[in-house]
UniProtKB/TrEMBL annotation:
N-terminal signal peptide: 1-24
Superkingdom of the source species: Bacteria
Domain Chalcone isomerase: 43-173
Protein's name according to its UniProt entry: Chalcone isomerase domain-containing protein
């Protein structure tokens, strides 16, 4: 009886691996996407990352999916990435986000992010009505189905009140 189950188990594992591969490429979530804009983020004169915003619509529409790709120029720990993101979300959201919700989002980011090195490519794909998918290169790291978190996360770069309005304009294709 175990011999009969072995081919079935192998077949099931193959299906699982193939389905994971289907989500392993962020471009599959955004067929036909093109770069809207790109820019560099520097802090204290040091290059931190290059950013590219991908979308299927020009200009970016709020109800359309998009991808934000960050290519790091230096090593940064996961904890530092999470802490910087939490600070910005808290600054932009103010009292509209509870401490409990922020703590939950911090845990989501901790599970979604990795330590980065020079050349590491992280991409977040915003899917309206669904949430966000985080990719390391072409590998799916995590699918977060909290739409409010997804909006708050991408606001770090795309909200008009962002700390880096020049980068926002570049990403949106509105600046040279």
């Amino acid at each position: 009886m175990n011999r009969q189950r072995t081919p079935l188990r192998h077949g099931l594992w193959l299906l699982v691996l193939l389905s994971c591969q289907a989500l392993a490429n962020w471009q599959d979530s955004l067929p036909g996407a093109q770069i809207l804009g790109s820019g560099e983020f520097r802090k204290y004169g040091f290059d931190v990352y290059s950013a590219r915003l991908w979308s299927t619509s020009r200009p970016l529409a709020g109800d359309q999916p998009f991808a934000l790709e960050l290519i790091y120029q230096r090593s940064i720990s996961r904890d530092d990435l999470v802490n910087a993101s939490v600070r910005e979300i808290k600054r932009l959201a103010g009292t509209s986000v509870s401490a409990e919700q922020l703590a939950s989002w911090q845990a989501q980011m901790h599970q979604s992010f990795v330590d980065v090195q020079t050349g590491t490519r992280l991409t977040g794909v915003y899917l309206p009505g669904q949430g966000v998918r985080f990719f390391l290169g072409q590998q799916l790291l995590r699918d977060v189905t909290d739409l409010q978190f997804a909006k708050a996360f991408f606001a770090i770069w795309l909200d008009p009140r962002t700390n880096n309005p020049e980068l926002r304009q570049q990403l949106l294709g509105a600046a040279p």
